[in-house]
Amino acid sequence: MDSVRAERPLLIHIGYHKTGTTWFQRRLFVPENGYFQLLDHQEIFETLVRPYPLAFDPEEVAARIAGPLARLPEGCVPMLSSEILSGNPFFGARDCLLCAERLKTCFPTARILITIREQIAAIVSTYMQYLRRAGTLSPQDFYDARVEPGYGAFDHRHFQYDRLVAEYRRLFGAGDVLVVTNEALATDAMAVATEVATFSGAALPRQVSSTRVG
Question: Which superkingdom (predicted)?
Answer without folding.
Answer: Bacteria
